[in-house]
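Before going further, learn to read the protein records used in this course. The integers have meaning only within a learned vocabulary of local backbone shapes. To see the layout at work, look at the sequence and tokens printed below.
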Amino acid sequence: MIRMMSALTIIVGCQSGCATIKRGHPLEGSAHLSDANTGYYVWVTRPSIWHLRMAVGRDGKAHRFQGSLTGSRGGISELRTTRSDWSESVAVVGDAVQFDVALTQNDGPPGKFGFDVEVAGGCAQLDLYVDGRHEPERVWLGPRSDSPRHLPIERCP
């Protein structure tokens, strides 16, 4: 009986103490781009602000990035690209940002290329291609750099 009471005390104590620790959502916080590999880095800074960056690794090859970020519960209310000359390569079409961009390592440092978008309702569907193929292992989500098992995916912060 005493062991059971001790175990119950530990469980209740942990629950009340653990409730004061707020863990962030796995997508919240910027991605680690310092040693970027070829692919996508995606994170959220507020419940509705999504950041998508494309990076080319050290393989010296040009890579084509295509896809969309679609608002699952509402439309896109604001789009900001990292390059002003991308008006024809990155655009809002309906409830989605669609893009088709070619990059090389010579274009600049990792994380320089991409866009930030406000998504009504916060939830987004990501359909991302590298060189014409779904490659979920080349998609890194949030500061923990988790990769999805498949593409497309839907996430809600």
